[in-house]
Amino acid sequence: MENTNVLISGASVAGPALAYWLHRHGFKATIVERAPALRDGGYAVDFRGVAHLTVLRRMGILADLERARTGVGAMSYVNSAGKEQAKMPADLFAGDIEILRGDLARILYEATRDHTEYIFGDSISSLTEDADGVYVTFERGAPRRFDLVIGADGLHSVTRRLTFGPEEQFVKHLGVYCAIFTTANHLGLDHTGHGYRTAGKLVAMYSSRHNTEAKAVFYFASPQLDLDRGDVARQQAVLTEHFAGNGWQSDRLLHDMRYASDFYFDSVSQVHMDRWSRGRVALAGDAAYCPSSLSGMGSGLALVGAYVLAGELAAARGDHRVAFARYEEEMRAYAEGCQKMGDGVASLMVPSSRLLAGFLNRYYKVMPYLPGRNLPAKMARRAAENIELRDYRG
Ligand SMILES: Cc1cc2nc3c(=O)[nH]c(=O)nc-3n(C[C@H](O)[C@H](O)[C@H](O)COP(=O)(O)OP(=O)(O)OC[C@H]3O[C@@H](n4cnc5c(N)ncnc54)[C@H](O)[C@@H]3O)c2cc1C
Q1: Is the CB of 285 under 6 A from ligand 1?
Q2: pLDDT for 18-38, tens place per residue?
Q3: Tens digit of each residue's pLDDT (9 = 90 or more) over 317-327
Q4: Domains along the chain?
Q5: Most distant CA pair in the chain, distance
Q6: 52, exposed or middle or buried, with CB in 10 Å at 0-12, 13-18, 19+?
Q7: Which residues are 213's β-sheet partners?
Q8: Which CA distances in Å does 103 have to 40, 54, 67?
Q9: How far, in Å, is the centroid of ligand 1 from the Cα of 326?
Q10: How many helices (DSSP H) and strands (DSSP E) are in the chain?
């Protein structure tokens, strides 16, 4: 086996899942994560269909995920006074397992920490490839050499920027921004969520961790903003500009936002690339093929991508030229199908006009009774299952 010493950038979903499989196949993974510790936060992510469940089962973590599932059921849409206007049963959109992203990241971390070197609070700053490997410099730590480098560092991947160029070439903003944070369950929500939609805005609250807390979620329509991703104060100011005086729980949640320890803010975007590798560097998860946080596909796709990438490296005995090409062959159509689930969702979730918002609020009232009510869930399952997984375990 060649190229066994692998650096992974990013410790969320794709990174630790890849480290898990690399270890199983006899590689040694090191993960560098920019955050000072494992990042909590985010709302729920879904796994659905045979491919996702097969990978989770083969990793031996399916039972852990089942224990940590959110158990959140129907979602109600309310008016500005909080009166229910429509109720969406969970089966209209839900997958097989819904789990908080932070819980998923923790389970993956626990499954890998004994055999993976984790470096928190650092980032790759340069990559120089030669015939034998990649010379990597870091913002803080001393330079090191690795055989291969995998960018699993999300939508704003530094590995992608250093290897392929500026993110504007690859990241497509879908016209919506999203903010999520943990807050008190002051509405006493019981395994449920409430959402309030107006033109260009959606604010919601879901109970989480068995009603002991809640997740506040804000979506708003906006062209791309010139915001520093590290500037939380500015992001919170933008959110306040959009939602102050918006009605329902908006003001209360904006107030609570200032005390949240896990504030997450990002654009709803997709990543489209002609290729996912160059030389000894490859990308996985959102860094390579982000389907958008509204597609309901990001974590499952990242998990399957990590499984295939590690498996192809093992099958090629570490020959990255063969493995990276095979990874793309196996994953390309699958990733594109999952990305289609994100198309058009942004403008439906957050319609820009009052007319459309009003229509949607009325449509949601009748939707649970329409014959095609399960169509979105069926389409999502079909996309999630559209891959024949090889068994690389040998
Ligand atoms: C805090 C957080 C909250 C999220 N909330 C939701 C949610 O509520 N709903 C949803 O559908 N999706 C959410 N997502 C996105 C979701 O996790 C991904 O779409 C999906 O799971 C694919 O995972 P990924 O590992 O490819 O990318 P991501 O989950 O985006 O993870 C990328 C990781 O790389 C790290 N990173 C970034 N830059 C660097 C760098 N320069 N050096 C080292 N590490 C770096 C990030 O801190 C992060 O840990 C969230 C992501 C994060 C990080």
Answers
A1: yes
A2: 999 999 999 999 999 999 999
A3: 999 999 999 99
A4: 5-347+377-385 (3.50.50.60)
A5: 65
A6: buried
A7: 208
A8: 7, 19, 10
A9: 25
A10: 13, 18
pLDDT level of residue 381 (50, 70, 90 thresholds): very high
pTM, full prediction: 0.95
Residue 131 CA to ligand 1 centre (angstroms)? 31
Pairing status of strand 28-33 against strand 117-120: parallel
Q: Is 347 a residue whose pLDDT tops 80?
A: no
CA dist., res. 144 & res. 109, Å (int): 23
Distance between CA 297 and CA 300 in Å, rounded?
Answer: 6
pLDDT surpassing 90 at residue 106: yes
Ligand 1, residue 13: give the atom nearest the CA: 25
Q: Could you tell me which residue, 362 or 304, shows the higher pLDDT? A: 304
Q: Please say whether the beta carbons of 21 and 310 come within 8 A.
A: yes
Provide CB contacts within 8 A for 184, sequence distance 6+.
213, 214, 256
pLDDT of 138-168, one tens digit each? 999 999 999 999 999 999 999 999 999 999 9
104 lines ligand 1 (CB under 6 A): no
